[in-house]
Specification:
Chain lengths: 100, 474
């Protein structure tokens, strides 16, 4: 489990994102992966092969274990996308769907 | 199509130094970087980190501000948030930013794509709660986010100590450090103690980190010979064995396990360009061929920094400047005497900054047991292929990583072998009785990362687009 360290002099603004219908507060400039981890989300997706749970491994764009559905687009790397006000983020279950 | 004399890929220390050097000589430069801000992984989020206390992240981190200031000050076409997905030997660079793809053509290209953490395949390493120590450091630097107790660090190498020390300075407790450095490494590393003496500053830093951890009373278990992460659906604990008590599993609770066995070059692009790569037995990784000034064996391409062999941030910075000078000379932008005059001090600096490397590589060389995991351990995280499955197809006569890929799907997931490649090369080499060199690596191709058809279509010229929609209608 992760959390933001208390930084009394950090004046960075917060943005609110939607994760699975819940409002999460994130530091502006954070990646989606950092914001989710800091809010206690510890499983990001399940794998296409065995549906086993996964969370970020590398946080630098190499491992693809932080894949999420962001604003309706599946398979986005949560560690490479920066949060934006009102962004909608969803857990990714198994392989991405082709239905739109 | 935009044409530039010099393009640089990656805005870490090597890329930033290369850009500054070329720009100061009056050359037009474009630098593409996937991250939203400059610094690479080492100086990540330096401009925006919430951890402004200089002691917390340490002076090596803040050294990056000079390079970042230069990148911002000079008239450099710096493109953050630009993912390079394609590259050809002709210098065509396909980039994507905000869902829009573009192709830029460069006469010379400097690849400064850095390193990634070495895969650390153990039982349970795919469980949520287990991640790279480098990943935890990224969270700390970019967002001031830290794992809550109980946190265990395991592995070997300077970054492991550094992350532990940074956590403690930030007020986040560390339950234990499980050190996997093999006993025999200390003796073997002494052979290179001469180089270590020349790099005494690095040694001093390492020793002072160890003292800091000791003073803080962190439990430091040495000579760990086996390790596994346990839990149902998420990490609940860590179990290990030591050389002193072989066969006896010891355990502690943990909600976060941070693993680290050093870093290896990011070779996705040099591989896709079919450059030659050599297996380094010293660094236990593939290294693209380049000369001492950074010229690769691919015409017009240069490799600077850790993507050409791990040397650390200072070495990367010097290599970046040197590669830029070499590119400038080959474009006839500077003459040969100027090149030689300016390259000489950089070559000397490189020799002295790299002197510590053989010592560090030997001391922190991961033992065979970590690189040859037991049959039940997942090697390919994407396709969930175990070491046992890889050994099984090797016994069937599978000759190399590419054939093995067709048999098992190992390496065919979205990470494109980044997380399994080195392990696969070593496992197959041992099973087949060949050298790692002869066993080889995956054949990599663009796109370097998955892209959508829509993104790809946006790269087409507007005229072509209009034509295509007409044909679609008819």
């Amino acid at each position: 489990m992760f959390a933001y360290l208390k930084q009394p002099d950090d004046r960075t603004e917060n943005v609110i994102i939607d994760y699975e219908g819940k409002a999460l507060s994130a530091r502006a400039g954070d990646t989606v992966a950092a914001a989710l981890l800091a809010s206690g989300v510890d499983v990001f997706r399940t794998t296409p092969v065995s549906q086993s749970p996964r969370a970020p491994w590398c946080m630098m764009g190499a491992c693809f274990d932080c894949l999420l559905e962001i604003d309706g687009v599946p398979n986005r790397q949560g560690c490479q996308v920066v949060v934006a006000q009102g962004m909608k983020v969803a857990h990714q279950k198994g392989a991405r769907r082709i239905d739109s | 199509m935009k044409r530039v004399p010099l393009a640089i890929i990656g805005a870490g220390p090597a890329g930033m130094a290369a850009a500054a050097t070329a720009t100061r000589k009056g050359l037009e430069v474009v630098i593409f970087d996937e991250q939203p801000a400059p610094g690479g992984q080492i100086y990540r989020a330096l401009e925006s980190t919430p951890l402004r206390d200089p002691v917390l992240l340490g002076s090596d981190y803040w050294h990056g501000s000079e390079l970042i200031d230069a990148l911002r000050r000079e008239s450099i076409d710096y493109r953050p948030g630009h993912m390079v997905w394609q590259l050809t030997r002709e210098g065509e660079i396909g980039v994507i930013a905000d869902d829009i793809a573009e192709v830029v053509v460069a006469e010379r290209v400097i690849l400064a794509t850095g390193a990634q953490e070495r895969p650390f395949p153990i039982a349970g390493w795919t469980l949520p709660g287990v991640m790279g120590a480098g990943a935890a450091q990224v969270l700390l630097k970019t967002s001031g986010v830290a794992a809550q107790a109980p946190v265990v660090l395991a592995g070997s190498g300077p970054l492991l100590y550094l992350v532990a020390a940074q956590y403690l300075r930030a007020g986040s407790p560390i339950e234990a450090i499980l050190e996997t450095t093999p006993r025999g490494n200390y003796r073997r590393a002494m052979t290179y103690v001469g180089g270590a003496a020349r790099g005494w500053r690095y040694l001093q830093k390492g020793l002072s980190l160890l003292r800091e951890l000791k003073r803080a009373g962190v439990r430091h278990v040495r000579d760990v010979t086996a390790l596994r992460a346990v839990g149902e659906g998420r990490l609940a604990g860590v179990e290990w064995q030591t050389g002193a008590k072989p066969g006896i599993w010891q355990a502690c609770e943990a909600t976060t396990l941070l693993l680290h066995h050093g870093v290896i070059p990011n070779i996705q692009m040099t591989r896709a360009l079919s450059g030659e790569h050599d297996w380094s037995d010293q660094q236990l990784c593939w290294i693209p061929r380049r000369d001492s000034d950074g010229r690769s064996d691919i015409d017009g391409f240069y490799v600077a920094g850790d993507s050409g062999g791990v040397g650390g941030a200072r070495v990367a910075e010097t290599q970046g400047s040197l590669a830029a000078l070499a590119a400038l000379a080959s474009l006839d932008h500077i003459d040969t005497p100027t090149f030689e005059r300016e390259a000489q001090p950089l070559r000397r600096a490189l020799a002295s900054e790299s002197a510590i490397r053989p010592f560090l590589d030997t001391l922190y060389r991961p033992a065979d047991t970590w690189r040859h995991p037991s049959d039940d351990v997942v090697v390919c995280r994407c396709e969930e292929v175990t070491a046992g499955e890889i050994r099984r197809v090797a016994k069937l006569g599978c000759s190399g990583p590419n054939q093995m890929k067709s048999f098992t799907r190992c390496g065919m997931g979205p990470c494109q072998g980044r997380m399994c490649g080195v392990t696969v090369s070593e496992l197959l080499a041992r099973e087949s009785g060949q050298s790692v060199e002869a066993t080889g690596y995956y054949r990599l191709r663009p796109p370097f990362k998955p892209i959508t058809l829509g993104q790809l279509a946006s790269a087409a010229e507007p005229a072509e687009k209009a034509h295509r929609s007409e044909t679609e209608v008819s």
